[in-house]
Amino acid sequence: MDDHSRQSFLNPQLDRAMKACKVGVIGLSGGGSHIVTQLAHYGFDRYVLCDPKTTERKHLHRMLGATIADAEASAPKVEVMERLIRGLRPHPEIQAFKGEWISCAAALKDCDVLFAAVDTVGARRDIEQFARKYAIALIDVGMDVSRANDGGYRVAGRVFASLPGGPCMQCAGFINNDMLAKEAAAYGMAGIRPQVVSVNGVVASAAVLYAIDLLTGKTGKVALPCFITFDAGSMTMGPHPYLSVVTSPCECFSSSEIGDARFVPIG
Amino acid sequence: MKFKVRAASQFLDNVRRDLTRPHAFAFERVGFVYAREAVVDGGPSLLLPFAYAPVADAHYMPKEGVGACISGDAIREAMAFILREDACVLHTHMHENVGMPKFSRVDVRNYPGVVRAFQNTRPDRPHGALLLSRDAAVARVWPVGAAEPVMDSLVISVGRPMGIFSEGAIYG
Ligand SMILES: [Zn+2]
Is residue A78 a part of any domain in this protein? Predict the structure, then answer.
């Protein structure tokens, strides 16, 4: 009996889809480690993983799969994630890169679904541009911690799915030039970005569920475009309010930008 | 060498809409999907469709026993495009069934001649054929310099739902 028969109620073809679909995960800390763990539990078999960092003590609060021994040995995060997948899947195909995502772009191109769990607005924008260039379904996850009016902290997570031809992060008002400029100006002074393991878990779960919905297409109930927020204070999850103003199809990316950069003779 | 043809499902749906327009006498329509090739590390070669051109009504010729017979002018237009654009081209038509489409014997017999014309025009790029159904697609791609196509290429339709297809199998 198939080892995944217990979840076959989702879709009898899901097992085959998970064998053929190549998934990429950029950023393997808070959000990314949850995503990888869930993908492996589902039964995905083809991965491209990338993260430049090694495991440290402080990561143990939020990185699933990481151990005290990993922190003591400064184990690369990609190795921790690869070990986790191999512990759950008998014959996975894993390309793991300890480095920035751009350094493994040639491998990431082959991904059909790409998860991005990165810290900066600029990286999000660049990864989305890359995903559009190669017709990849991009699912971005993130978490924001901001000061609330009462002096406390407001913790919110979000998932944004960017599909070729569909609204992009700029169309949806999720990123804009102002944010990019502020980020560039504050470069090097960003300070700590607190992560909360359980909020990461909620957001990552929504992202993986969305990917499963893409691959099975069975629920037909998930809103398109997908832009979900989770407010940890009120424990509510729902469509982002910006969604109501997304109307036109995305014209931010042109079909002439598809594929590898080419040498174009002038004249 | 394997190939993966990956396109937005919106793109493939637009091609389907075009190919299902009735023609005065041809039973099927034909078009050309133009694709960029991308080099992948440790994977199949990627073909990324970026443009589609239908064969003009006037380029169909009446012929018994085939769904559509297109003129040399139609092929020449495609040849001019790939030469100019440094593109790969996929001869594209549709079978109006639901589920996996199957290349007919006539399709299989006619492709090598068409593909040879493309290979002569743009010998440095892979070319081939794409066959759509109402909800799936299959491709046969001839690698650079090859006389025979690669059979187990994947076609990925990216949207909701996503489709992952190869000849004889639907994934998802
Ligand atoms: Zn846009």
Answer: yes
For residue A50, give the CATH number of its domain: 3.40.50.720
Contacts for B79 with CB less than 8 Å, ≥ 6 apart: B117, B118, B121, B122
- Looking at the complex, does the CB of residue A109 fall below 8 Å from at least one CB of chain B? yes
Tell me if B38 and A19 make a contact (CB, 8 A cut-off).
Answer: no
Neighbours of A134 (CB within 10 A): 24
A255 touches chain B (CB under 8 A): yes
Measured at the CA of B156, the angle between CA B131 and CA B140, to 5 degrees, comes to 40
Residue ranges making up the domain that contains A47? 11-246
- The number of folded domains in chain A is 1
pLDDT in tens, B99-124: 899 999 988 998 999 999 999 999 99
Q: Which domains does chain B have, with CATH numbers?
A: 3-142 (3.40.140)
Task: Decide if A147 touches B, using CB distance below 8 A.
Answer: no
Q: Is residue A40 part of a domain?
A: yes
State the amino acid at position B101 in one-letter form: P
Q: Which residues of B touch A217 (CB under 8 A)?
A: 160-162, 172
Determine, for residues B10 and A164 on separate chains, whether the beta-carbon distance falls below 8 Å.
yes
Q: Please, are residues B58 and B44 in contact by the beta-carbon 8 Å criterion?
A: no
Residue A38, domain member (yes or no): yes
> What is the per-residue pLDDT for B168?
63
More confident residue, A76 or B39: A76
Q: Considering the domain boundaries, does residue A262 fall inside one? A: no
pLDDT digits (tens, 9 = 90+) for B10-48: 999 999 999 999 888 888 899 999 999 998 987 789 999
User: Is A36 in contact with A96 (CB distance < 8 Å)?
Assistant: no
ipTM of the complex, rounded to two decimals = 0.93
Gap from CA of A104 to ligand 1 centroid (Å): 25
Judged against a pLDDT cut of 60, whether residue A36 lies above it is answered with: yes
